[in-house]
Structure formats: structure tokens, C-alpha cells
């Protein structure tokens, strides 16, 4: 049977992956490769049913394979606990498969796989799910759109001034607490920070403007440090911000908050520097909230509660994580860090009259958590296998995009739509040229490589050339003198390179692993808008990712958009269905209720 | 809008169910944990359903083998490790143990014996009863028992024939909150469903013209199996001529032309014999699971009242088959404040 002979590659062994591996095995597939870099977490267990509690911490790919072999011992599953972007998974690797099935959770990896499938000429079945929504579609080189033919929205970012000066939503305060305050207190101190607020006249500024303000002083107890920081960020900083009259002309004025006000009538929680609580050292269970009697993560704390947690969590972090301070990265599953961020965000919210959030809600926002259930993933896995079978049978005409909806639309909970032809303007599959506007006399190559090539174009291992001249490349097998040359090139201004890049130059960007090529036409421009074009360069043409138009700010703050249905996020199971895209598609191409797919060949959609 | 739970979930529940609590909320999760479900039959599609509702954290799942049918071979189930197929334990017991392993917080048991032998109030133990492939008269019987035993017992049935599937739902009366959308505020919806018997009694010539043909095809199969003393699923392509006769008879009695149900559709149903196509089981088990969870949690608009899937057109279609007197399922709708 077709399925028995087919060789299939699955990328992702998470929510969709577990269901998919099971469905493939039951359908009769016997030769499966599976790639996933993740390990198992407790929050996976509500839907990634091949895993058990005792597997937490182990490789998803390996445990999934073992679980399926238990009920289908005669099939071959090769599990790779690795990143699909690893150079081992090159075009030759991909070429061995009849079809590739994605169960990924981020746009970046999907783009990478898309390029490899195009290079290898292997059809790709793409999918995504979030809550009750899901989508499955098919990409076949030269016959249909590739994954990058249609624009995907990147995670929402917020203007720096909104975060530092004029928050109006809970998410602004959470981003502030996580990416500014927490980062400054526990992360790399040498990174410049937007935490400090200045007045327009620059003659007076907060005490926090002192670059050493956030460093604990000699002989300072954790208690007094915590209080000093509290007063600095919630009191002093706000006072200074209030002096910028312009800002508050048409906005509600915030209210500063000081320790003495919060505790005017009661004692502060005793900060005794002890960390003898039994769970003091395990980052998943050590908890300031629990010590303070706040054991329900769904409960929204009061200002007093938040202040208590702020002080206590800060104390515990200082006392139990000394070696990490200065290099701590925020992790939503780090209980103390999450409590601290929630408390800080709530305190800031209270200053700006924004509703406070429970620990549960804050974690969802701070951690970009995507909600997920088993049933949608099961449905998606079934749809993926049905498309895979059609591809293996060579029935591309029968392949389609299928949307899984929460409520019936025109009587349909599962809604098929025709696939689209490749876009001639797609720079990934149709080789069209992009335009890069940049100041060639003042921009270094390094900036172009970081922001454009690796960033917006998502190229993994770039090789950049102008005509026959190689300007830059990456790789393990490069000779030392080439590496030196390339490193020197990175620091040069574009027009000072050995092969100068000037107005009108055309650059080729290639990635051998992705077998991807695109061309950048350079246009020299002197002036860029600081707010709207903070990168000082603009890439245009048919891009496969966009950012919201009016988002200035050079600080990369990642946060979840408020409107959950229209974004693509990192973390478990991501939705690639974006309601707006779906609506457009539906207007154009939904199969008419009267029409029936007529296929001249005998219909054998099942495998027996 | 999120309700604050009076007591917190246990830490284990909060940790495991985190991602789904973000979908339906703590209160809905708590209601699920108090819910009791009875599943009669065990086939590929029912294993999918059981997996889904156990993972979701219902209070208890009771398995029963009652309605005889031709079921698919045991060793295609993902619930049973191959080395245990030859064990002494019954198939259902093996399934139950496996399901318990998926989620130790759910109480999974096997109920021996048939429904007939049970005391009158047996069904009162359950909030939902799910029946798999079975004769129509068996399903109608169980459905009427549910209705007799209490207004709150929901009845769901599912059958997967090869790649084709049908789901039926009877919630008797069901109230849920319809989320606000754009300019439409929150409203309390009150639905009154018809029984399986009433739905089956619908006159074909009164149903909307575009009603999916699979609905009629399944009725023809049911009639054929009943009239020929077959177990459900006990059919082959050799029965085609006979099934076409059944189609002729039924269509005539319903005042419809035979072209209502294409030959090809019946051909595919017969070709399927007793098999269930695994990807379609995943889809049906997912849809059915989703509906069941909506019913138990009281959150979200449930299906009204049939669902069909055919991979040929790829549409997952809901059909509202009303009572013979055409009263629709939605009875009352009222705006509310949340």
C-alpha cells in the first residue's frame, strides 16, 4: 500500500506532533523520521498524550517514538532530538522523503523548512492550531504558493515611549516589568536601559538616572534595597514623568506610589533574609506568594499584596540566586521571577489606573502562552494525514487548505478552500528582487546582516556577494584568512567594502542549506525617520513577514498582542491561520456548496 | 469576564490543565472534573473520543460493551500495547487501564453486563451517554432511556464508515452563554433539541434542498442492515444491488427521486465494510470530544444537531434536522449582563 512504502518526515513532536505520529502509525505508515528540539514539560500533558509525568525533562521526539512503538512495534521511527535548522538536515536529507509534515510552533522554523522543501522538491503539509482554531494547507513547488508567498504577521511589539512613559494597557506594564525592570535588576547590567525617565529640560531627572541606582550598595540590606528600588520606580520616576506637561495634556495623569503610603497603617512583611523554606532553591517551586498566603494564581492581588510580593520576591531572588544575578534571563516558569514581574506590573498599573492582573493572566501575557487543547490537534492531525495521502497518490488537484473553525460558518465547522498558485512576486519561490534603502556611507555591513539578512529575511547561514565578489559568508570550513577578511568587512561601511556597495548595487543573498537565493537592490538614502524607521534601513518588495506600521522604537520588546486571534507567537502550538487571511481566502475561493470534486481516477482515499 | 473560582484548583490540575484553562476558564474546568460520562461500545473513533475527554479531565468515564456490531480489529488501537493483546483481561479493561494512564486524575471503570440488566436508574449516574456504531433501534432505545431518566442527560452518537462519518447530538434542553461579538452583547441561549426518533422521522421532502446526501445515505444503510438482520458494519460490495433497492424504496416512500443519493456514495459506504479510516476517526473523535466538553462545561455553542464529514469534499458539515413539525432547535434567546 502507498502508505507502507512512503517515507515521511515530521517536524515537531508537540501538540500536533503527538496526534500526527499516532494517526500516521494507525493509517499504516511504516517509515517515519521525527525532529524536535524540545523536552517535555508538565503543561504539555493535557494534550501531548504520548508523554507521561515521569517523562518530564526528556526528549519529546524520543519519548513519542517509544510510545508509538509500543502499539506499533513493526514500524520504523527515527527520532532526532535536534533543531531542524541544524546543518545535518540539508537538502540531501530532505530529498529522501516523499512528503514533509510540519507540526511547528514558530514562523522562523517554518520558513526554514519551507525553503528546504522547495530546494529538495518535496511537498510540504503545513499546519497550526490555537484553542479551537486550526488550519492545514499544502505547499508544492511550482504548483502552489509556498509558505512565504503570503505575508505572516510577526509578534506584536510596542513603542518604547508607551512602555516607559505612557502605558495604557496591562500588557504595557508587564512588558515594562519583564523587559526593563527585571532585566535591569537581574540581567546584564551593561546593556543600556530605557528604564530611566528623563524630563524634557534634562536639568532634573530621577534619582534612578544614576547609573548605579539599581546596584545594591555596600552594606545595604535586601530590605532597604528593595524599598529604595520600589520608591525609585513607582514613586520618583513617576514624579519626574509628571513634570513633562506635554505628555499629560490629553492623558490621565499617573499617581506616584511610595512604600510609606502602602504600609502607612501596617507593618511590612518581615524580610529576614532567611531562605530556609523547604522549596527555597528550586526555581519552579520557590514562591514568595505562597509564603505570603497568596496561594490562588487566579486571584487578582491588591496593591498591598503586590507590594508584599514585590519586596519578598526581590529578597528571595537576591538571597537564593546570587550567582545568577547579572545574567538571569526571564523565564515564565521561574516562579519567583514570574511573581516579581506580576507584582511590579500590578504596582505600575495601579499608578496608571490600569486594571491589575492575576498571576495566571500575567504569566500568559509575559510568557506569550498560547492556549491549546487536545481535540483541535487531533482534528488537525487527521486533516494532515488526509492531505499527505492525496499527495502520495499524486492527486494534487484534490489537495486543499482546510480551516477548523470554532463555530459553524455557512454550516461548516471544517471549511475547505482551494490552493493558490505561486505568487510571482514571492522572493522565496519566484526569485523576485527586493529593494533595500540604506545610507551606504554610514551603515556597517554588520547591521545589514543582523537586521535584514538574518532578521527580516530569516536566512540561517548567509552568503552575500555582489556579482562575482564574495562579501560575507558563514561556515565551519572557511579558511582563517577568509574569516578575518569577513570579520573586517562586517565593520566597514557599505561603500568602503572591497567591492563597494552603493546606490544601484545588486546583492545576492544565498543560503546553501536552505538552497535559497534572493536579490537585494540597493538604494542610497540619507534621511530616515527615527520613529518610523528606527533601523535606519527599509526593505520593500513582497516580504513574507510584516510588522505593524506605526511601531517606532529600537528596543525589541516581545509581547503578545491583545487581540489573540490575529498573531503568530512562539511557544506551544501556534496558529498560522489568521482570521483576516482566512476571510480573504474565503471570499475568493471557497468551494461552492454545489460543486463536487470530480476526479477521473478511481477514488481510493483510504488505505486498507 | 473571567470568573474567579471560589476555591483554587489543585496544584496538579493547575499545572497540567494550564493551557486548556486558558481556553475555557477555571469554572468550566471544575465542572468538567465533576462530570460523569458513559461510553457504550469501543471502536477506533470511540478510542479517540475517550482519549480526548480523559485528557481534558472529566470526573469519570465508564466503559460498556453493549450494542453488538462488527468492530475493527483490536490491535489497531493506540490504547493497547501489542504485548498485552493476548492477556487475560478483557479488551475494555485493557482500554480502561491505558486511559487511566493518560490522566490519573480521571476515574475510569468498566461496567459489565448489558443495559437491560441494569436497574432503572442506572443512567442517572451520568451526565452524558455516548453510543458508537449500533443498530438504529438500539440507539433510539438508549436515547429514549436518557430522556426518561432526566432532563439533563445528554445523548451523543457517532459512526465512522471507512472515510465517512456522522455524529448526532441530543441535549434535550441546554442553556449556555453566547459570547458577545462586535455590536452583539452577551446573551443566554436556550436550546431545545429533538430526540433521535424525531430527527429520523423528519420527512425528506421537507428538508432543505442542500441537506448533505450523507444523511440520507446513512439512513439507507441503517434500513438495509436492519431489514437484512445484519450487524452494523456487516456489509460488502456484494450488497450493492440490494442496497440500491433499499434506496428506491425509501426514496419513494419519502417522496424523493432516487438521484437524491448518488450510487457512488453508497458504493463507498459498502466498500468500507466495517473499517474506520484512522485520520477520519481522529477528526470525528476530535469534533465529538469538543462537543461533549462544551456540553459539560456549559461554555460554547454546541452542534445543532448532526455533523457529517466526507474527505471527498473536505467539508465538516453541521445539519439541523428538526422535528417533524419543523420547530427549530433554538427556542429562546435573552440578553444578559456578565
TrEMBL record, chain A:
THIF-type NAD/FAD binding fold domain residues: 5-427
Hydrolase keyword on record: no
One BP annotation, GO: protein sumoylation
Sample GO molecular function, one term: ATP binding
Binding positions for Zn(2+) per the UniProt entry: 146, 149, 426, 429
Transmembrane segments: none
Active site as annotated: 161
Pfam family of the protein (one): UAE_UbL
Main location, first listed in the record: nucleus
CDD domains named among the record's database cross-references: Uba2_SUMO
Residues reported to bind ATP: 12-17, 36, 44-47, 60, 105-110
PROSITE patterns cross-referenced by the UniProt entry: PROKAR_LIPOPROTEIN
Stretches assigned to the Ubiquitin-activating enzyme SCCH domain: 306-363
Pathway: Protein modification; protein sumoylation
Domain of life from the UniProt record: Eukaryota
Assigned keywords, A-Z: ATP-binding, Metal-binding, Nucleotide-binding, Nucleus, Transferase, Ubl conjugation pathway, Zinc
Domain Ubiquitin/SUMO-activating enzyme ubiquitin-like as annotated: residue spans: 436-526
Record flagged with keyword Zinc: yes
Subcellular localization: Nucleus
GO CC annotation: cytoplasm; SUMO activating enzyme complex
Assembly: Heterodimer.
Family per similarity comment: Belongs to the ubiquitin-activating E1 family.
Protein name, entry field: SUMO-activating enzyme subunit
Native source organism of the sequence: Ceratopteris richardii
Automatic annotation (TrEMBL), chain B:
A Gene Ontology cellular-component term: SUMO activating enzyme complex
Record's protein name: Ubiquitin-like 1-activating enzyme E1A
Compartmental location: Nucleus
Gene3D superfamilies given in the database record: NAD(P)-binding Rossmann-like Domain (3.40.50.720)
Family under the similarity heading: Belongs to the ubiquitin-activating E1 family.
Pathway the protein contributes to: Protein modification; protein sumoylation
Alphabetical list of InterPro entries matching this protein: ThiF/MoeB/HesA (IPR045886), ThiF_NAD_FAD-bd (IPR000594), Ubiquitin-activating_enz (IPR035985), UBQ/SUMO-activ_enz_E1-like (IPR000011)
Pfam families named in the record: ThiF
Keywords: Nucleus, Ubl conjugation pathway
GO molecular function per UniProt: SUMO activating enzyme activity
Amino acid at each position: 500500500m502507498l502508505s507502507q512504502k512512503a517515507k515521511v518526515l515530521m517536524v515537531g513532536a508537540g501538540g500536533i506532533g503527538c496526534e500526527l505520529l499516532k494517526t500516521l502509525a494507525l493509517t499504516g505508515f511504516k517509515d517515519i523520521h521525527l525532529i524536535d528540539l524540545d523536552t517535555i514539560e508538565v503543561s504539555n500533558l493535557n494534550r501531548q498524550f504520548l508523554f507521561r509525568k515521569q517523562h518530564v525533562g526528556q526528549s519529546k521526539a524520543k519519548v513519542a517514538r517509544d510510545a508509538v512503538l509500543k502499539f506499533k512495534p513493526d514500524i520504523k521511527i527515527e527520532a532526532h532530538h535536534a533543531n531542524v535548522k541544524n546543518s545535518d538536515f540539508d537538502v540531501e536529507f530532505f530529498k529522501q522523503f516523499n512528503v514533509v509534515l510540519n507540526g511547528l510552533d514558530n514562523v522562523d522554523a517554518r520558513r526554514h523548512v519551507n525553503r528546504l522543501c522547495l530546494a529538495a522538491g518535496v511537498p510540504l503539509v503545513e499546519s497550526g492550531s490555537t484553542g479551537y482554531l486550526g488550519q492545514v494547507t499544502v505547499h508544492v513547488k511550482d504548483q502552489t504558493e509556498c509558505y512565504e508567498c503570503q505575508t505572516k504577521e510577526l509578534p506584536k511589539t510596542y513603542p518604547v515611549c508607551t512602555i516607559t512613559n505612557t502605558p495604557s494597557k496591562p500588557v504595557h506594564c508587564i512588558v515594562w516589568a519583564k523587559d526593563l525592570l527585571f532585566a535591569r535588576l537581574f540581567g546584564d547590567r551593561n546593556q543600556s536601559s530605557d528604564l530611566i525617565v528623563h524630563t524634557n529640560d534634562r536639568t532634573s531627572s530621577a534619582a534612578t538616572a544614576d547609573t548605579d541606582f539599581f546596584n545594591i550598595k555596600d552594606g545595604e540590606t535586601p530590605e532597604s534595597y528593595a524599598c529604595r528600588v520600589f520608591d525609585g520606580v513607582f514613586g520618583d520616576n513617576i514624579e519626574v514623568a509628571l513634570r513633562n506637561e506635554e505628555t499629560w495634556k490629553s492623558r490621565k495623569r499617573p499617581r506616584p506610589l511610595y512604600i510609606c503610603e502602602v504600609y502607612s497603617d501596617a507593618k511590612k512583611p518581615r524580610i529576614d533574609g532567611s531562605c530556609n523554606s523547604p522549596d527555597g532553591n528550586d526555581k519552579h517551586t520557590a514562591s514568595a506568594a505562597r509564603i505570603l498566603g497568596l496561594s490562588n494564581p487566579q486571584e487578582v492581588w491588591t496593591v498591598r499584596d503586590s507590594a508584599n510580593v514585590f519586596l519578598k520576591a526581590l529578597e528571595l531572588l537576591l538571597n537564593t540566586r546570587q550567582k545568577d544575578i547579572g545574567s538571569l534571563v526571564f523565564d515564565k516558569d521561574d516562579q519567583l521571577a514570574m511573581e516579581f514581574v506580576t507584582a511590579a506590573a500590578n504596582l505600575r498599573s495601579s499608578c496608571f489606573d490600569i486594571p491589575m492582573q492575576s498571576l495566571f493572566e500575567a504569566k500568559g501575557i509575559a510568557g506569550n502562552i498560547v492556549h491549546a487543547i487536545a481535540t483541535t490537534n487531533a482534528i488537525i492531525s487527521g486533516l494532515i494525514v488526509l492531505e499527505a495521502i492525496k499527495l502520495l497518490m499524486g492527486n494534487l488537484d484534490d489537495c486543499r487548505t482546510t480551516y477548523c473553525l470554532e463555530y459553524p460558518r455557512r454550516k461548516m465547522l471544517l471549511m475547505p478552500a482551494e490552493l493558490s498558485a505561486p505568487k510571482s512576486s514571492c522572493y522565496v519561490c519566484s526569485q523576485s528582487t527586493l529593494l533595500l534603502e540604506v545610507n551606504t556611507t554610514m551603515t556597517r555591513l554588520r547591521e545589514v546582516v543582523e537586521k535584514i539578512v538574518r532578521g527580516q529575511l530569516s536566512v540561517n547561514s548567509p552568503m552575500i556577494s555582489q556579482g562575482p565578489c564574495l562579501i560575507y559568508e558563514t561556515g565551519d570550513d572557511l579558511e582563517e584568512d577568509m574569516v578575518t577578511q569577513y570579520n573586517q568587512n562586517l565593520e566597514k561601511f557599505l561603500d568602503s567594502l572591497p567591492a563597494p556597495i552603493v546606490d544601484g548595487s545588486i546583492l545576492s543573498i544565498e543560503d546553501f542549506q536552505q538552497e535559497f537565493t534572493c536579490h537585494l537592490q540597493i538604494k542610497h538614502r540619507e534621511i530616515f525617520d527615527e520613529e518610523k524607521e528606527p533601523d535606519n534601513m527599509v526593505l520593500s518588495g513582497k516580504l513574507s513577514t510584516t510588522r505593524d506600521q506605526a511601531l517606532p522604537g529600537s528596543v525589541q520588546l516581545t509581547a503578545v498582542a491583545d487581540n489573540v486571534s490575529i498573531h503568530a507567537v512562539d511557544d506551544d502550538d501556534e496558529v498560522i491561520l489568521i482570521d483576516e487571511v482566512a476571510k480573504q481566502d474565503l471570499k475568493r475561493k471557497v468551494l461552492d456548496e454545489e460543486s463536487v470534486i470530480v476526479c477521473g481516477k478511481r477514488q481510493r482515499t483510504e488505505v486498507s | 469576564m473571567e470568573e474567579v473560582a471560589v476555591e483554587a484548583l489543585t496544584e496538579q490540575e493547575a499545572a497540567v490543565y494550564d493551557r486548556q484553562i486558558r481556553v475555557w476558564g477555571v469554572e468550566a474546568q471544575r465542572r468538567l472534573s465533576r462530570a460523569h460520562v458513559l461510553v457504550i461500545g469501543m471502536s477506533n473513533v470511540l478510542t479517540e473520543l475517550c482519549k480526548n475527554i480523559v485528557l481534558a479531565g472529566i470526573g469519570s468515564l465508564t466503559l460498556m460493551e453493549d450494542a453488538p456490531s462488527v468492530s475493527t480489529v483490536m490491535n489497531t488501537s493506540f490504547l493497547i500495547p501489542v504485548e498485552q493483546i493476548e492477556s487475560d483481561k478483557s479488551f475494555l479493561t485493557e482500554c480502561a487501564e491505558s486511559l487511566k494512564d493518560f490522566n490519573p486524575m480521571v476515574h475510569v471503570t468498566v461496567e459489565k453486563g448489558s443495559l437491560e440488566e441494569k436497574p432503572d436508574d442506572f443512567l442517572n449516574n451520568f451526565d452524558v451517554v455516548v453510543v458508537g456504531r449500533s443498530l438504529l433501534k438500539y440507539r433510539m432505545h438508549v436515547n429514549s432511556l436518557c430522556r426518561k431518566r432526566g432532563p439533563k442527560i445528554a445523548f451523543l452518537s457517532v459512526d465512522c464508515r471507512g472515510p465517512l462519518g456522522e455524529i448526532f447530538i441530543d441535549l434535550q434542553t441546554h442553556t449556555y452563554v453566547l459570547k458577545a461579538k462586535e455590536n452583539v452583547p452577551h446573551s443566554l441561549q436556550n436550546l431545545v433539541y429533538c430526540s433521535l426518533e424525531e430527527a429520523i422521522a423528519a420527512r425528506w421532502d421537507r428538508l432543505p434542498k442542500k441537506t448533505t446526501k450523507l444523511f440520507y445515505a446513512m439512513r439507507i444503510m441503517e434500513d438495509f442492515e436492519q431489514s437484512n438482520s445484519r450487524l452494523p458494519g456487516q456489509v460488502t460490495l456484494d450488497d450493492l444491488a440490494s442496497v440500491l433497492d433499499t434506496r428506491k424504496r425509501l426514496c419513494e416512500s419519502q417522496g424523493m427521486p432516487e438521484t437524491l443519493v448518488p450510487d457512488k456514495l453508497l458504493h463507498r459506504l459498502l466498500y468500507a465494510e466495517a473499517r474506520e479510516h484512522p485520520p477520519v476517526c481522529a477528526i470525528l473523535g476530535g469534533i465529538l470530544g469538543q462537543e461533549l466538553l462544551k456540553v459539560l462545561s456549559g461554555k460554547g455553542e454546541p452542534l445543532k444537531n448532526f455533523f457529517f464529514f466526507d474527505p471527498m469534499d473536505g467539508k465538516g458539515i453541521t445539519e439541523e434536522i428538526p422535528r417533524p413539525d419543523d420547530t427549530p432547535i433554538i427556542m429562546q434567546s435573552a440578553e444578559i449582563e456578565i
